Amino acid sequence: MEILSFVETRQLLAKYKIPVCRTEIFNSKEKALAFAEKIGYPVVLKIHAQKIFHKSELGGVKTNISNKEQFDKAWDEINENIKGKNIEGILVQEMLSGNEVALGMKNDEQFGPVVMFGLGGIFIEIIKDVAFRLAPIGRKEALEMIQEVKGYNILQGARGKKPVDIESIIEMIVNLSKLSAKETNIKSIDFNPVIVNDKKSLVADFRVII
């Protein structure tokens, strides 16, 4: 069991029209910094490795990096934290604002691919506010999944915030379902978080296990 490489993951998600935050992978600080300054701060740094399943626990993630000085410090700290570990590289990613949701899939031996949707953060970690369906899933079922979770009203614009783009979440669930039904070698998929706002939904963190 291993994590799909960054390049293969990006190709896979592009194939099934699953959009991702602007992200590139680097082993050079200078090239990584140039990309960060090209896409604009704030950015996130995170390691990608085929054998490391919990990158945060290793100190392999740094968020809300707002300038060159913070970038230099974060890059050096990550490299110190993962010294001796075999990684593919360090991802540089735009940091977006919005609500967090999570999508996932587990390929069950008996039932086949089971797709999950839930709100991110404490909603999925503590409250377990999630909905499940067997793939393949159509648009109607995808909307039902979204409406089933207890935190649905947050997505509708609670506390004066703009409602998120529900249609973009539906499309991502349907496309994840298509991927899950066709790519039978994949054991599980985690998109957590997916950042959603009133304009779009983008995968911010991904893990595909084969």
Total number of strands: 10
Q: Provide the β-strand percentage band.
A: 25-35%
CATH class of the largest domain: Alpha Beta
Sheet/helix structural class = alpha+beta
Number of helices: 7
Measured distance between first and last alpha carbons: 6 Å
Looking at CATH, which topology of the largest domain would you report? D-amino Acid Aminotransferase, Chain A, domain 1
CATH architectural name of the largest domain: 2-Layer Sandwich
Question: From N to C, what is the helix and strand string?
Answer: HEHEEHEEEHEHHHEEE
Poorly predicted runs are none
C-alpha Rg, in Å?
17 Å
What value does the average pLDDT take? 95
| Tertiary shape | globular
Mind summarizing the main beta sheet? Answer: 6 strands, antiparallel
CATH H level of the largest domain: which superfamily?
Answer: ATP-grasp fold, B domain
Number of domains: 2
Helix content: 25-40%
Keywords:
alpha+beta, 2 domains, single chain, 210 residues, D-amino Acid Aminotransferase, Chain A, domain 1
